[in-house]
Amino acid sequence: MALTKLRRKFDRAEFETWLRDTEILSTANGSVVIGGRNTYGVHWLREHAGPRVCAALTEVLGRPVDVRFEVAPPSPLPSSLGE
To answer: Tell me, what CATH number does 55's domain have?
Structure first.
């Protein structure tokens, strides 16, 4: 739901480049850690998207949240490719 809200807060190129592939890595104690693809992407998210992402999550969850961005761990290869 938050990504749907964010799609309206960013232009299409920004959303597709920086936000589409993000994922929630963890939630605890009012904090949400969002994973980006690489260090540059995480930097961009912190500098350009942080407040809008925080506002969207606060709206969806109905309570204030602290948002942090980190590089997401690599996804495992599908079993057919990992052999």
So the answer is: 3.30.300.180
